[in-house]
Design brief:
There is one protein chain. With 155 residues, the chain is mainly α. The protein is 42% helix and 6% strand. A two-stranded parallel ribbon has the order 1-2.
C-alpha cells in the first residue's frame, strides 16, 4: 500500500515562499546564494507585492531548482508523470479524515500525527494573489497538480 498527501498548489507555493524564501531555513537562489533580496532586486516582506516579485522572476525565468516548488505530481509519480492509480492520495486540507483512511487500509490504530514546519507568519494564501498575472503564472506552472489532484483554479 502506497500513499502520499498533497496540498492546494496556491497554499503550497505561498507556504514555500514564507518558509523557504523569507524564513530562517532559506533555500538557495538560482545564482547559488541565499540573498533573495539581491536576486530579486527588492527588499522582501511578507506581503502580496514581494510574493508577486518572487513568482514573476522565479517561476518564469527558469524552472524552480528547489523541490519545495516542484509540482507534487512529479514528486509522487516521477518526471514521466506515469500516474499510478494504486497510490492513495490524501489531501492536507482533509488530513484527519484521509489519515484515518490510510490507517484503516493498513489495519493499524490511528495515531495523532504531529505538525512540523508550520509557517508561523503565513496569512491566508488568497491575500498573496493580488494580480491576475501572478495567479496565471501559478495556474500554468501547477496545472498538472490542479488537474491530477482535483484542486480548483479558483481562489
Amino acid at each position: 500500500f502506497q500513499f502520499s498527501f498533497v496540498r492546494n498548489p496556491y497554499d503550497r507555493v505561498v507556504s514555500g515562499f514564507c518558509h523557504k524564501v523569507l524564513g530562517a531555513r532559506k533555500i538557495m537562489t538560482p545564482e547559488g546564494h541565499k540573498d533573495w533580496n539581491k536576486y530579486l532586486g527588492h527588499e522582501l516582506k511578507n506581503d502580496a507585492e514581494s510574493f508577486s516579485i518572487f513568482v514573476k522572476k522565479y517561476f518564469t525565468e527558469q524552472r524552480p531548482l528547489d523541490r519545495h516548488f516542484f509540482t507534487q505530481s512529479s514528486l509522487i509519480y516521477g518526471k514521466d508523470l506515469n500516474v499510478d492509480t494504486n497510490i492513495y492520495i490524501g489531501k492536507l486540507e482533509q488530513f484527519k479524515e484521509h489519515w484515518q483512511q490510510v490507517c484503516d487500509a493498513l489495519n493499524v490504530e490511528n495515531t495523532e500525527v504531529e505538525t512540523k514546519n508550520k509557517t508561523k507568519e503565513k496569512k491566508p494564501y488568497q491575500t498573496y494573489f493580488q494580480s491576475d498575472e501572478v495567479k496565471q503564472i501559478i495556474d500554468d506552472f501547477y496545472k498538472i497538480d490542479f488537474e491530477t489532484f482535483g484542486y480548483d483554479f479558483e481562489m
